């Protein structure tokens, strides 16, 4: 398990900016070093443990980019078309029977290796076949329609990088190198539980004053998308002793403990006190809306994060605190969130010095430009505001007013996990 020192999340200021929080996590969280081997079919989404140098050039041999006729550039007609005999044929997967002689052409197909002596290919659409000759037009450039060996990736270059979260195209590259297995960082083990007397698990009886626990399922799904191995620990009641016991029990066997609810400073918010009874805890007052305090702590060397209970606050703080923590624990390269410019179709007032996220849907404006339409209501408890929208507009600390037509930064939900 990742072992952290007791005071690693201590922070001096009364209010922490989102960037400070992300920076602090990146420098204080030590990564898991355990590596495992996976087959390519299981590599998507995993964090690559070591750099991979191209073991062969791509393409591995010089080949034709089109179906057509291969010739030597010395035989390219200069001013007018010219007929030359076709003396060979080479298709993908086989090689020419011998070198191409000057003044001759070889019928060739896409992906077939260039015969020795040929360096240029005429597309079949650009020529005329007359008996056993092909009539070549003038004006083709030497080297046209040929893919030289290594033009994609030369042999020996660093092609995939340590800490990279593998995407389908990265897995394809490993396959193109002929690799069958990759060394990846083992999955980060996360223990998740919800806290609150008002919560019932779906499938359980719900008392009149209870609601079904939704955050736990949202957080577990987000963690799975980040490649974590999740332990679902259910709901813990608002009781200091049972919370403390549950926390202590899972600390040794997990890399991160994540809870939702109970981190405010009300007298029924017991997470703070129970973490303190078995470990160390600091409350981060982040300058973010929706948000509220996020609890950061260490229990027996294992990091602890307590997210707020309101679903939207839980979602937004997950993105800025849990996501970078998971990436740091996996030794992954930081993946900064890069908002895309869209046009605001709403007006919005905000406080200076605080980062705010507005839930929006995207639509195409009359002029074709993407517009962000704000969800009509703002409560941090509205699950529908996450369900019926496409993403978040990020409003920086310096912004105080947004008016319709202004350009704002949009983060799609898909880009957040
Ligand atoms: P808390 O952070 O515990 O003060 O909770 C704030 C609000 O979020 C309250 O209305 C809770 O009922 C609600 N809440 C807390 N935990 C959950 C959860 N796991 N799922 C859905 N709502 C929750
Ligand atoms: Mg509560």
TrEMBL record:
<dbReference type="InterPro" id="IPR036135">
    <property type="entry name" value="MoeA_linker/N_sf"/>
</dbReference>
<dbReference type="GO" id="GO:0046872">
    <property type="term" value="F:metal ion binding"/>
</dbReference>
<keyword id="KW-0808">Transferase</keyword>
<dbReference type="InterPro" id="IPR005110">
    <property type="entry name" value="MoeA_linker/N"/>
</dbReference>
<dbReference type="InterPro" id="IPR036425">
    <property type="entry name" value="MoaB/Mog-like_dom_sf"/>
</dbReference>
<dbReference type="GO" id="GO:0005829">
    <property type="term" value="C:cytosol"/>
</dbReference>
<comment type="function">
    <text>Catalyzes the insertion of molybdate into adenylated molybdopterin with the concomitant release of AMP.</text>
</comment>
<dbReference type="Pfam" id="PF03454">
    <property type="entry name" value="MoeA_C"/>
</dbReference>
<keyword id="KW-0501">Molybdenum cofactor biosynthesis</keyword>
<keyword id="KW-0479">Metal-binding</keyword>
<dbReference type="InterPro" id="IPR001453">
    <property type="entry name" value="MoaB/Mog_dom"/>
</dbReference>
<dbReference type="GO" id="GO:0006777">
    <property type="term" value="P:Mo-molybdopterin cofactor biosynthetic process"/>
</dbReference>
<dbReference type="Pfam" id="PF03453">
    <property type="entry name" value="MoeA_N"/>
</dbReference>
<dbReference type="InterPro" id="IPR036688">
    <property type="entry name" value="MoeA_C_domain_IV_sf"/>
</dbReference>
<dbReference type="Pfam" id="PF00994">
    <property type="entry name" value="MoCF_biosynth"/>
</dbReference>
<feature type="domain" description="MoaB/Mog">
    <location>
        <begin position="191"/>
        <end position="328"/>
    </location>
</feature>
<keyword id="KW-0460">Magnesium</keyword>
<dbReference type="GO" id="GO:0061599">
    <property type="term" value="F:molybdopterin molybdotransferase activity"/>
</dbReference>
<keyword id="KW-0500">Molybdenum</keyword>
<dbReference type="InterPro" id="IPR038987">
    <property type="entry name" value="MoeA-like"/>
</dbReference>
<comment type="similarity">
    <text>Belongs to the MoeA family.</text>
</comment>
<protein>
    <recommendedName>
        <fullName>Molybdopterin molybdenumtransferase</fullName>
        <ecNumber>2.10.1.1</ecNumber>
    </recommendedName>
</protein>
<dbReference type="InterPro" id="IPR005111">
    <property type="entry name" value="MoeA_C_domain_IV"/>
</dbReference>
<comment type="pathway">
    <text>Cofactor biosynthesis; molybdopterin biosynthesis.</text>
</comment>
């Amino acid at each position: 398990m990742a072992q952290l020192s007791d005071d690693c999340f201590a922070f001096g200021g009364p209010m922490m900016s989102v960037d400070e929080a992300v920076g602090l996590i990146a420098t204080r969280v030590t990564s898991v070093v355990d590596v495992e081997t996976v087959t390519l079919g299981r590599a998507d989404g995993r964090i690559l443990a070591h750099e991979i140098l191209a073991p062969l050039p791509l393409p591995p041999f010089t080949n034709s980019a089109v179906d057509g006729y291969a010739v030597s550039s010395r035989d390219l007609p200069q001013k007018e078309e010219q007929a030359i005999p076709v003396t060979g044929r080479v298709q993908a997967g086989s090689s020419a029977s011998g070198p191409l002689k000057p003044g001759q052409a070889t019928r060739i197909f896409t992906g077939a290796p260039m015969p020795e002596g040929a360096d240029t290919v005429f597309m079949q659409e650009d020529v005329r076949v007359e008996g056993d000759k092909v009539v070549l037009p003038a004006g083709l450039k030497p080297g046209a329609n040929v893919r030289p060996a290594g033009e994609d990736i030369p042999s020996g270059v660093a092609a995939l990088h340590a800490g990279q979260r593998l995407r389908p195209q990265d897995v394809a590259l490993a396959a193109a190198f002929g690799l069958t297995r990759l060394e990846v960082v083992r999955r980060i083990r996360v223990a998740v539980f919800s806290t609150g007397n008002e919560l019932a698990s779906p499938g359980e009886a719900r008392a009149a004053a209870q609601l079904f626990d939704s955050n736990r399922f949202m957080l577990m799904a987000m963690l799975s998308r980040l490649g974590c191995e999740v332990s679902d620990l259910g709901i813990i009641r608002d009781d200091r002793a049972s919370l403390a016991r549950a926390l202590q029990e899972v600390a040794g066997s997990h890399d991160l403990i994540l809870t939702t609810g109970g981190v405010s400073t009300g007298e029924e918010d017991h997470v703070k006190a129970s973490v303190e009874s078995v470990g160390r805890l600091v409350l981060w007052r982040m300058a973010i809306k929706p948000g509220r305090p996020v609890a950061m702590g260490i229990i027996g060397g294992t990091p602890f994060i307590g997210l707020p209970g309101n679903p939207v606050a839980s979602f937004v703080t997950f993105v800025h605190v849990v996501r970078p923590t998971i990436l740091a624990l996996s030794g992954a390269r930081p993946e900064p969130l890069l908002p895309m410019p869209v046009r605001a179709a709403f007006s919005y007032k905000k406080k200076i010095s605080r980062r705010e996220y507005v839930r929006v849907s995207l639509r195409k404006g009359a002029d074709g430009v993407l517009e962000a339409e704000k969800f009509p209501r703002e409560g941090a408890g509205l699950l529908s505001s996450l369900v019926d929208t496409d993403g978040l507009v990020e409003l920086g600390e310096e912004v105080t007013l947004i008016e319709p037509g202004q350009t704002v930064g949009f983060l799609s939900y898909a880009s957040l996990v």
